[in-house]
Input
Amino acid sequence: MNLTLKIWRQKSPDDKGGMVTYPMKDVESHMSFLEMLDVLNNDLITKGEEPVAFDHDCREGICGTCSMVINGRPHGPDSAITTCQLHMRKFNDGDTIHIEPFRAKSFPVLKDLTVDRGAFERIMQAGGFISVNTSGNTIDANTIPIRKDHADMAFDAATCIGCGACVAACKNSSAMLFVSAKVSQLALLPQGHTERTERVLKMVHQMDAEGFGTCSNTGACAAECPKEISLDNIARLNREYLRASFVSGE
Ligand code: SF4
Ligand code: FES
Output
């Protein structure tokens, strides 16, 4: 199929940037979206032009780095998949495809389609961990009884890959779905209870310090999340934060 790509090109964080048009010929429908961009970049390099910078690593929906907005939707027109899992059969011959980076003040553009998602790392560093002794004598996980429904909910929350599509989809650039998944994953399990109170307070404070917006319950985050993280986690985050505020007297 023949396509017209309109891609956001931006040389550096300070560059104004703009859309550049690239005609693509003979794109195979079985190609992944990133393979299609690889072909474009090979052509650009052959012509002595600067290839399009975009993030990718695993190319199988695990690492969460392939962040881009395709035709107005984070991770493109399909549901419950990442950009690297999107295939060109989702598009038609003659289509024009707009490709942009995730847009959020807390995710500044570094170059072309790559953004700095260090804000998520700093939120995780603030409290997204448990303290356990790992110096030998590892305790078998099955020695700690955990309710099946709690284990299932914790597992579902743990599937969040930190891609940031929830932020890019939200009109407020809220990171509530991401933070709620990370808080829920640990709050639901006994192993996470030791730091339960300080964790949620620190992670929410860091989320605010990074400049993410507030949640106004539109649900755009969950609609675009490639891992179908549930809005129930945001309700749990609010309960965890309220409880921690009472317990700590903040
Ligand atoms: S909640 Fe979903 S959209 Fe947000 S970072 Fe996690 S996987 Fe990505
Ligand atoms: S490249 Fe890892 S999730 Fe897409």
Notes: The longest strand covers residues 3-9. Helices lie at 33-46, 118-127, 148-158, 165-169, 176-187, 196-209, 220-224, 232-248. The pocket of iron/sulfur cluster (ligand 1) is lined by residues 64, 160-166, 177-178, 181, 225-227, 229 (CB under 6 Å). Strands lie at 3-9, 18-24, 69-70, 73-74, 96-100, 109-111, 114-115.
